[in-house]
Amino acid sequence: MYGFYLLKGVLNVLEEIRFSFFRRRLEKNEIQILESKFPYFSRLSEKHKKEFCEKLEIVLSSKKFIGRGGIRVVSAEMEVLIGATIVMVTFGWRRVRMPHFQKILIYPNAYYSTISKSYHRGEVNPKLGIIVVSWNCFLEGMTDENDGVNLGIHEIAHALKLENQIFYNGESEFFNPTIYQRYKMLAAAEIEKIGADEYSFFRKAGGLNEHEFFAVSLENFFERSNEFFEYNPDLYGALVQLLRQDPRVWVK
Ligand SMILES: [Zn+2]
Hints:
The chain is an alpha/beta fold. The protein is built from 11 helices and 6 strands. It has helices spanning 2-21, 28-37, 39-42, 46-62, 76-89, 135-143, 151-165, 177-195, 210-223, 225-231, 233-243, and strands at 64-67, 103-107, 111-113, 118-120, 122-125, 130-134. A 4-stranded mixed β-sheet has the order 1-2-6-5. This is Zinc-dependent peptidase. It comes from Algoriphagus pacificus.
């Protein structure tokens, strides 16, 4: 296993070099999609917009977007908006782009999983390095940008947490261990509150386990930053340090 991840790490570095030379460039209409449909981007300064676009180009060059369940052609909008969500969540790190997750599968609607024998809106498969989203649910999550429910952020948060656990992927241990411990301690208190049916800022799904809570807390971190900060400044502050960014800066 050690050798496998070491090899994977070397391959990732080589890929990194390749993508910086042969990068898929964003078209004008794609930047327009970001400006009109991705509020986080439209609020950035010109300098940060440039950085965001560069990172997005690398994400789009290095991941395969595959349509499933009737989606024959993956549109530019799908690639740009899903890619932008990855860039947003990882914007605090210049180089982190989650290389372990190379494939993004896109279903039109909630899809039936033969493994869990139930309908899914999205999921992450660390064994195969796949992130799955249903496009309808992804868009629904983006419609209300202040409700703290966003499928894209949710699934990418799951992937990010897993990516951090995978050693020798060239990006290992990008979560600062001390800050991560602090976050986990504060998160456990919230999970307990949800479990005890006490009032919590976070929705019930976050109380299931630490993985779900991480995903739900990131949805709120990006969508309801000010409210989250007011509710629990320590937990919010731990996430600012962990993700190395504070979305409140961009919120108008
Ligand atoms: Zn989840």
